[in-house]
Amino acid sequence: MRTLVRDAAILVAATLVLGAVANLTRTQRLAWWGQGNQPPQVDVDFRFLDVGSADALRTSLPRVLFLDTRPPEVAAGGRVPGAWSISYTNLTADLTAERLAALQQSDAVVLYGSSDEGDVEQLLAQELHRQGIKPPYVLIGGFPAWEAAGLPSEGGAS
């Protein structure tokens, strides 16, 4: 029994030490609410948008930009026509001055990923809003919903 307790204590201590070291050495971090950041808020940092409304925006306004948050190898299988790839963890590199200016001048920005949840898209929308972009839209259902609706896509096997 003593050996089990001792081994458990060693594992807990090692986990705490390694976790603290990893947190201190990482150069790119996801939002951490304990460091003064607030979680993204609907209708403040972003708005949800269904696929039908997203397509209506795309076809009726001249400067609607779609941002694909999926990994490039996944996005290569198909994406919304004209969508830009962007990564929350590489936002500094992906968000060039030219792209930032285009996003700020756009009529609407729509973010989508590969799932219904959209957590990464919400965090990215919050950061883009902090960069001076009108609150972006997060596509409900992501690219799978876009495809399921039979809306146009580019790339992939189509």
Overview in brief:
The protein is an alpha/beta fold and 158 residues long. The protein is 44% helix and 11% strand.
Question: How would you sum up this structure, described in words?
Answer:
It is a single chain. By secondary structure, the chain is α/β, with parallel strands linked by helices. It folds into two domains: 2-26; 47-148, Rhodanese-like domain (Oxidized Rhodanese, domain 1, 3-Layer(aba) Sandwich), CATH 3.40.250.10. It has seven helices and five strands, in the order αβαβαβααβαβα. The protein has helices spanning 2-25, 51-60, 72-75, 91-94, 97-105, 119-130, 142-148; strands at residues 47-49, 64-68, 84-85, 108-112, 137-139. The chain has a five-stranded parallel sheet with strand order 1-5-4-2-3. The radius of gyration is 20 Å and the shape is elongated.
Label this structure with key terms:
alpha/beta, Oxidized Rhodanese, domain 1, 44% helix, 158 residues, 7 helices
What count of structural domains?
2
- Uncertain regions spanning at least 5 consecutive residues: 31-35
Largest sheet: 5 strands, parallel
Q: Using the coordinates shown, work out and report the CATH topology of the largest domain.
A: Oxidized Rhodanese, domain 1
Q: What is the radius of gyration? A: 20 Å
- Under the CATH scheme, which class of the largest domain? Alpha Beta
Biggest sheet: strand arrangement? 1-5-4-2-3
Query: What is the 3D shape?
Result: elongated
Q: CATH H level of the largest domain: which superfamily?
A: Rhodanese-like domain
N-C termini distance: 62 Å
Helicity range: 40-55%
Count of alpha and pi helical runs = 7
Order of helices and strands: HEHEHEHHEHEH
